[in-house]
């Protein structure tokens, strides 16, 4: 019996992957041993992120870690991956939405229809601005060229932000060469981990989403060929990766705000920031009107957030 | 096949294909496509094309046609004629002075374009016939022009440093600044070399005897010619270094500045314009197709795990010290550069080397300068070298192939010395970017 | 053979004309980049400049590639090649240009697949999909959009690439024909059509 070999590509570059995926894959390879080995490739390494989904569909790549938005998956749920504005406040919101509020079923149906297995969704960090110049009011957002997720960018452009999408690995240099004024792609943990804190000076404490949502996917045929125990092992390792991020980011965000020395914190006052939150309400409606599936997901978000609001502290404050 | 065998197979057959004289991009692309279909497994056939999508997203490549166009405007519109005359008049009255002035000319031309072709063309068509007519030693001056023009990629703007920046993920601005002092140092070393040789044997570079008629007024007026390259250089670099314009925007400004200058000086005829535009297309396409093929090659090489073989070789199997590894890498670049295209070499090999260099604790900006000098050497060393090709094509008939080959020997010696000095004293490269960007 | 040479001349003529037109798009590129710096300095930066510039660059080198091939712009390593007689060069090229053609076919096939995807086809037989589009048995599905905030449709640039690769393939065939003619003495070795 020969070793099953998978190629997997993540949308993260090596510095970030060292935390968010390397340990899980190493674990998988160690346990699966001669039965199966996964070789991991980083952002754009084998195929560019824009071609990632198709590459997985065709079997050029066997498995992928990404949010739906970055790889522009051809489904109705694409916009909800990455940072959907104000859909979640905490990183635990994401698994609850998927496991208890019915998103798993919707995702499964959507991806099965395009020949891809949706394995599980997990959550990452909140979405903050890291910029060269300080942001203290909405006015300061105007004209800023910022690397961000497509849907977040669409939302932010109404405030004069100019969203730019570049290969992940090029971001640090693009800030230095003047292609970008900043980044709205992560929380502060990532800013420090991947080197963005070295090229930007300010961190805005307001965020447009409390937690990123992204998933593990596999080519449907490759997935079905796996014996059940290896499927289970793969799921377990994905869960391990989700779990690692829960504490790594949660602890990291607080620690670096308090003890980090590379970025100065700024804030937009709550009353002013409320404009952004209100704009999100309109944005949700806009997306819901794009289709049935979108409407269903937005309804789930509404229901969930209403429940959290009613539950009160510590779920939601005010 | 083991990863070692795959690495060997892919590199070996690529070399073999190159030796047949097929177009470089075709040779590399064909091997990539064969390996993709034969070895990769499901979906391999899509990788060569997905490299095209990757290339599209490599935004710094947008600068390539701009810098190439700039170079052609410069050489085709004879914008540098006055510049040549300035150096001629100011330096002509010492032994070897015209040759030293030619190096100065090359430095200024380098500041106005991103490749070495422009310097080469100007050197071979304006300076070379003049120098020969005045009895300069033909081997020495052929070498002067080849060596001098190679400064084009070390002094900013530099296409090679942009390409390196993309692969190594390093800021172009810092790399460009890092190239300035080493470039000037190398120019100075060329000048010293010429001076010494002409001191020992004044017949190599006779004093120009027709400069008496030039009035001091005229002499001073000629100095203005030197302002042009500085203006073009500044129009591009000042907004860029200050962050007012981005890299790709600056490249367009540079191209526009060169075009405007040539129009203002009434040198831009329709014929010249047509030639510049056409040549820019041809040369840009040559670069782009090589990069396309090499990106595909690299992705398949990666996907087949052959990269691990190279890593193992350097770090585990040989068990060498960082400096020895670094020197071996430089040597392998120089050797590969004698028969492999520099762009292909960069796109294929640098992704394997650069992370290793970084993990050994070396500075990647500094390494970019080392890489660029190595490339310059590769341009000039037979059998395969672009500058050799160009020289062969452009030199006057009395210069034989033999002259060209022999002419470069001492200059390559100077360049290797410069390489060694910069290796020993990284500050030569790193001081300026550190000073300007303040870290 | 004469018919083939006629074909080759036609291809050369066509690609020459296309090249001489496409070469001016370098100024389109320059214009976009200049607009980008102007708009950024005086107004709000535009969403579309970077991606549009990238599309222009791709069109530039894909559609211009055949002209570069025709005019001998793609460098070769001439360690041995440079020494050979013109006839010998042509003979060797007859064989090795087949490798180039193979590469271009793989690229073209990849481009067809990727373009089919951009038109909403998820299957594994892009050629059948395109045939079906023409005969009406297949339909355009979900159109791929760029994963940027500007979200342009991707198929136009991919279709441009198909066209460029197709021209490139034709040009490589034309080179093959000329090489055969030169190698067999039907055409002067140095002659260009
Ligand atoms: N990879 C290449 N095709 N390089 C060509 C450029 C070489 C030439 N000597 C220059 O710098 O202008
Ligand atoms: Na230069
Ligand atoms: Na060489």
TrEMBL record, chain B:
<protein>
    <submittedName>
        <fullName>TRAP transporter, DctM subunit</fullName>
    </submittedName>
</protein>
<feature type="transmembrane region" description="Helical">
    <location>
        <begin position="144"/>
        <end position="167"/>
    </location>
</feature>
<keyword id="KW-1133">Transmembrane helix</keyword>
<dbReference type="GO" id="GO:0022857">
    <property type="term" value="F:transmembrane transporter activity"/>
</dbReference>
<feature type="transmembrane region" description="Helical">
    <location>
        <begin position="280"/>
        <end position="300"/>
    </location>
</feature>
<keyword id="KW-0997">Cell inner membrane</keyword>
<feature type="domain" description="TRAP C4-dicarboxylate transport system permease DctM subunit">
    <location>
        <begin position="11"/>
        <end position="428"/>
    </location>
</feature>
<feature type="transmembrane region" description="Helical">
    <location>
        <begin position="352"/>
        <end position="371"/>
    </location>
</feature>
<feature type="transmembrane region" description="Helical">
    <location>
        <begin position="222"/>
        <end position="241"/>
    </location>
</feature>
<feature type="transmembrane region" description="Helical">
    <location>
        <begin position="173"/>
        <end position="196"/>
    </location>
</feature>
<keyword id="KW-1003">Cell membrane</keyword>
<keyword id="KW-0472">Membrane</keyword>
<feature type="transmembrane region" description="Helical">
    <location>
        <begin position="247"/>
        <end position="264"/>
    </location>
</feature>
<dbReference type="Pfam" id="PF06808">
    <property type="entry name" value="DctM"/>
</dbReference>
<dbReference type="InterPro" id="IPR010656">
    <property type="entry name" value="DctM"/>
</dbReference>
<feature type="transmembrane region" description="Helical">
    <location>
        <begin position="7"/>
        <end position="38"/>
    </location>
</feature>
<comment type="function">
    <text>Part of the tripartite ATP-independent periplasmic (TRAP) transport system.</text>
</comment>
<feature type="transmembrane region" description="Helical">
    <location>
        <begin position="58"/>
        <end position="75"/>
    </location>
</feature>
<feature type="transmembrane region" description="Helical">
    <location>
        <begin position="377"/>
        <end position="395"/>
    </location>
</feature>
<dbReference type="InterPro" id="IPR004681">
    <property type="entry name" value="TRAP_DctM"/>
</dbReference>
<keyword id="KW-0813">Transport</keyword>
<feature type="transmembrane region" description="Helical">
    <location>
        <begin position="87"/>
        <end position="109"/>
    </location>
</feature>
UniProtKB/TrEMBL annotation, chain C:
<comment type="similarity">
    <text>Belongs to the TRAP transporter small permease family.</text>
</comment>
<keyword id="KW-1133">Transmembrane helix</keyword>
<dbReference type="InterPro" id="IPR007387">
    <property type="entry name" value="TRAP_DctQ"/>
</dbReference>
<comment type="subunit">
    <text>The complex comprises the extracytoplasmic solute receptor protein and the two transmembrane proteins.</text>
</comment>
<dbReference type="GO" id="GO:0022857">
    <property type="term" value="F:transmembrane transporter activity"/>
</dbReference>
<comment type="function">
    <text>Part of the tripartite ATP-independent periplasmic (TRAP) transport system.</text>
</comment>
<feature type="transmembrane region" description="Helical">
    <location>
        <begin position="153"/>
        <end position="173"/>
    </location>
</feature>
<keyword id="KW-1003">Cell membrane</keyword>
<feature type="transmembrane region" description="Helical">
    <location>
        <begin position="53"/>
        <end position="70"/>
    </location>
</feature>
<feature type="transmembrane region" description="Helical">
    <location>
        <begin position="90"/>
        <end position="112"/>
    </location>
</feature>
<dbReference type="Pfam" id="PF04290">
    <property type="entry name" value="DctQ"/>
</dbReference>
<keyword id="KW-0813">Transport</keyword>
<keyword id="KW-0472">Membrane</keyword>
<keyword id="KW-0812">Transmembrane</keyword>
<feature type="transmembrane region" description="Helical">
    <location>
        <begin position="17"/>
        <end position="38"/>
    </location>
</feature>
<dbReference type="InterPro" id="IPR055348">
    <property type="entry name" value="DctQ"/>
</dbReference>
<keyword id="KW-0997">Cell inner membrane</keyword>
<dbReference type="GO" id="GO:0005886">
    <property type="term" value="C:plasma membrane"/>
</dbReference>
<protein>
    <recommendedName>
        <fullName>TRAP transporter small permease protein</fullName>
    </recommendedName>
</protein>
<feature type="domain" description="Tripartite ATP-independent periplasmic transporters DctQ component">
    <location>
        <begin position="29"/>
        <end position="181"/>
    </location>
</feature>
